[in-house]
Amino acid sequence: MYLLTFLFMTVFAWSCEDDAQIPENKAKNPVIANSIKTDSLAPCITECLMSLEYQEISPEEEAHLIMMREEELMAQEVYEYLYSLYNIPVFNNISRSENTHTLTVKVLLDKYNIPDPALGHEVGVFHDQEIQELYNNLTWQGSQSFLDALIVGITIEDLDIYDLEVCLGDVDNTDIDLVFTKLSKGSRNHMRAFYGHLDNQGFTYTPQYITQAYFDDIVNSPWETGNGICQSCQMLKRAEGDPAGIK
Question: What does pTM read for this prediction?
Fold first, then answer.
């Protein structure tokens, strides 16, 4: 993690003040199963990323992959927890997207023979202590009210976009650049989703990690569409003259 201090000032000003905005079916004792799940896209993503050229990996790229594996998993598990509390589709939908993200990073760890920090993972337990502290703080924060949960969501995406931009500044490998670029696009769309919910609540979020200008540009621009990782891999293979990339 690249910022050591997590800010909570916006949270305490908005905690538990309007019970009418909190869904009535809030669970009292949520139970979450192991979060590392299979994904329908996993075979395609694995085949595509493994087929791209194997390039020498730098220590910085290796460190970024290790960190992003747990950061994406942390985001997934926070969203699963919040969905168990509030049963709002945005948390479930985005948790499933984060599952794809963390599995995609795992493919690159395997490709470059990097030990997986999530090996034998238990829900809510992380090797990186900063990520562990984030998980602890975010789940507590999100349990305070539905509004706090939405603030947690947009804050996670704020942090994720920031970290991915930092990572991309150190990346030369084609496959890692592809993955981090696609993850960043996904996080921008997640930010737009949470922003829409917060705007409906009459709440204005101030970014804690990315700049205000970048945040404004994201939330005031349309949802990003286009090729996913599998399609982008095929296009890269085609550009390299690989017939297998012509589908």
Answer: 0.81
